[in-house]
Design goal:
By secondary structure, this protein is of the alpha/beta class. It has 4 domains: 111 residues, BRCT domain (Rossmann fold, 3-Layer(aba) Sandwich); 134 residues, DNA polymerase beta, N-terminal domain-like (DNA polymerase, domain 1, Orthogonal Bundle), CATH 1.10.150.110; 86 residues, 2-Layer Sandwich (Beta Polymerase, domain 2); 64 residues, DNA polymerase, thumb domain (Beta Polymerase, domain 3, 2-Layer Sandwich), CATH 3.30.210.10. The strands form 4 sheets. A 4-stranded parallel beta sheet has the order 2-1-3-4. The chain has a 3-stranded mixed beta sheet with strand order 6-8-9, with helices on both faces. A 3-stranded antiparallel beta sheet has the order 10-11-12. α5 runs antiparallel to α6. The chain is globular and about 80 Å long. The chain starts with 39 loop residues before the first strand and ends in a 13-residue tail after the last helix.
Length: 472
C-alpha cells in the first residue's frame, strides 16, 4: 500500500501494527545455477538466527554458491558469525562431525566480500576462525585454539575501517536526508545523531535485516532505531518521505546547491518567498558575492559530478601552474578521490614544498590564480557560455608548510565524519588537540612532530587506517 503524499496524513495516532511475515510457499528457495562447483558451504545458525541465516543462504545461492541446508561430509566451508574458532569446533564435536583437514572455518565477512565480488575471494587471516593446520579429528590440542576475537564496534569512526562497500545503503541514505534536514534547521543535536548512525552502518560488513542485528551497535539512538524499524517493516521511512516533500527542505536543497550560498542566505531567500533560482537571478535588488555570481554563471557545470578522469586532468593543470613558480613542490590530490571515489563534486589539492619560505607560500596561490586568469582571458573563456567546449570545476587549493604536510594531508583527506571523530577521540581519549596543522599533547604540554599520517595515528595510539578505509 503506497504511503500518502500529504505529510499531515503520515502522523500515527497509535502504535503501528507490525506486518505478519509471509511463510510457506514464499519461503521456498528456487533453484539457482551453481557457478563454483568446488565449494560447498554450510552457514552456521548459532548466534546468527534463523532469519538472517535464511537470508544469507538465499543470497549466496543467487550469487552462484552451493549452500547446503544440512551438515555433511561434502561441506568444504563452514561460515559463522560472532563465533570463535573454538566455539565452532566445539559445536562440530557436539554434532559428531569429523573435521577434515581441508575444511575451512570462516567468518561471515568472507562470504559477504565474496558475494560483493561475485566470486570467492582469497581466504586470509582476517577470515579464518582456525588456521588449516589441524588434524582430521578433534583432539585436546585443538580445544586450545585461541578464539577469534570479535572486536566491539567503536563509537569513533577513526577506529572503524569503512570502505565504499556499503551494505546498508537503504538506511544510510535515509539518515543522510534526515541529517541534512536537521542541518538546514540548525538542529545540531539531531543532525549529528543521524550522521553518526549513518557512519556506523556504513562500516558494517553485513546487511541489517532485523532489529536484532542492531544490538550492540553504538550511536543508534531511539529516534534512529525507529527509522530503521520502519524501513525494515515497510521498505521506506514516512519521515524521510515527508522531508523530501517539504517545501522548506526542497528550497534549501536547491539554494545551497549554488556555489557560495549557505544557510543564512538560503533562509533569507526562503523568507522572501523565493522557491526557484530563476526568480532570484531576476531580482535586481539582490546583491551577490563573487562566489555566488560564479555559482549562478556556471551552475549546470558545478552541480554535475566530477569524474576521476576529469580530476586527474585538473591535477595536471594544477601541477603545471604550481611548478612554474615552485619546481620542487609536491601536489597531492586529497578528499574523496584519495579515498578511492570515482566521482565527486569538487577536487582538492594539497601543495607543499621543501625549502620554501613564508613569502613563497603566501604568494603561490595568488600567482597560480593570476596565471590561470590570464590564460582564461587569452583563450576567450571570460564568460562566454554559448558553444563552450570546456567545463567549470570547483578546485580547492591548500598550501601548507612542508613540516606540517602530514597533518594537512590527514585533515584534507576526510571523510567529514572520520575527521570529526578523529579529533573527538584525540580530545576525549588522549587529552590531545588535533587540527590540520598540528597535534598538541595537553598533558606533556608539547607539540608532537610527525613526518607521515602513520606517525600521527601512532601518537594517538590508533591502528593506521588507509585512506580508502576512511569513507565514514
Amino acid at each position: 500500500m503506497p504511503l500518502p503524499t500529504n505529510p499531515l496524513q503520515m502522523v500515527h495516532l497509535g502504535p503501528r501494527k507490525k506486518k505478519p511475515r509471509q511463510m510457506g510457499a514464499s519461503m521456498v528457495c528456487p533453484s539457482h545455477d551453481i557457478k563454483f562447483q568446488d565449494l560447498v558451504l554450510y552457514i552456521l545458525e548459532k548466534k546468527m538466527g534463523t532469519t538472517r541465516r535464511a537470508f544469507l543462504m538465499e543470497l549466496a545461492r543467487r550469487k552462484g554458491f552451493r549452500v547446503e541446508d544440512e551438515l555433511s561430509d561434502s561441506i568444504t566451508h563452514i561460515v559463522a558469525e560472532n563465533n570463535s574458532g573454538s566455539e565452532v569446533l566445539e559445536w562440530l564435536q557436539g554434532q559428531n562431525h569429523k573435521v577434515s583437514s581441508q575444511l575451512e572455518l570462516l567468518d561471515v565477512s568472507w562470504l559477504i566480500e565474496s558475494m560483493a565480488a561475485g566470486t570467492p575471494v582469497e581466504t586470509t587471516g582476517k577470515h579464518q576462525l582456525v588456521k588449516r593446520d589441524y588434524s582430521a579429528n578433534l583432539n585436546p590440542e585443538l580445544q586450545k585454539t585461541p578464539p577469534l576475537v570479535i572486536k566491539k564496534i567503536s563509537q569513533y569512526a577513526c577506529q572503524r575501517r569503512t570502505t565504499l562497500n556499503n551494505y546498508n545503503q537503504i538506511f544510510t541514505d535515509a539518515f543522510e536526508v534526515l541529517a541534512e534536514n536537521y542541518e538546514f534547521r540548525e538542529n545540531e543535536v539531531f543532525c549529528l545523531a543521524f550522521m553518526r548512525a549513518a557512519s556506523v552502518l556504513k562500516s558494517l560488513p553485513f546487511t541489517i535485516i532485523s532489529m536484532k542485528d542492531t544490538e550492540g551497535i553504538p550511536c543508534l539512538e531511539d529516534k534512529v532505531k525507529c527509522v530503521i524499524e520502519e524501513i525494515i517493516e515497510d521498505g521506506e521511512s514516512s519521515e524521510v518521505k515527508a522531508v523530501l516533500n517539504d517545501e522548506r527542505y526542497q528550497s534549501f536543497k536547491l539554494f545551497t546547491s549554488v556555489f557560495g550560498v549557505g544557510l543564512k542566505t538560503s533562509e533569507k531567500w526562503f523568507r522572501m518567498g523565493y522557491r526557484t533560482l530563476n526568480k532570484i537571478k531576476l531580482d535586481k535588488t539582490l546583491k551577490f558575492t563573487p562566489m555566488q555570481k560564479a555559482g549562478f554563471l556556471y551552475y549546470e557545470d558545478l552541480v554535475s559530478c566530477v569524474t576521476r578522469a576529469e580530476a586527474e586532468a585538473v591535477g595536471m593543470l594544477v601541477k603545471e601552474a604550481v611548478w612554474a613558480f615552485l619546481p620542487e613542490a609536491f601536489v597531492t590530490m586529497t578528499g574523496g578521490f584519495r579515498r578511492g571515489k570515482k566521482i565527486g563534486h569538487d577536487v582538492d589539492f594539497l601543495i607543499t614544498s621543501p625549502g620554501s619560505t613564508d613569502e613563497d607560500e603566501e604568494q603561490l596561490l595568488p600567482k597560480v590564480i593570476n596565471l590561470w586568469e590570464r590564460k582564461r582571458v587569452d583563450s576567450g573563456k571570460c564568460s562566454q557560455q554559448e558553444g563552450k567546449t570546456w567545463k567549470a570545476i570547483r578546485v580547492d587549493l591548500v598550501m601548507c608548510p612542508y613540516e606540517r604536510r602530514a597533518f594537512a594531508l590527514l585533515g584534507w583527506t576526510g571523510s567529514r565524519q572520520f575527521e570529526r571523530d578523529l579529533r573527538r577521540y584525540a580530545t576525549h581519549e588522549r587529552k590531545m588537540i588535533l587540527d590540520n596543522h598540528a597535534l598538541y599533547d595537553k598533558t606533556k604540554k608539547i607539540f608532537l612532530k610527525a613526518e607521515s599520517e602513520e606517525e600521527i595515528f601512532a601518537h594517538l595510539g590508533l591502528d593506521y587506517i588507509e585512506p580508502w578505509e576512511r569513507n565514514a
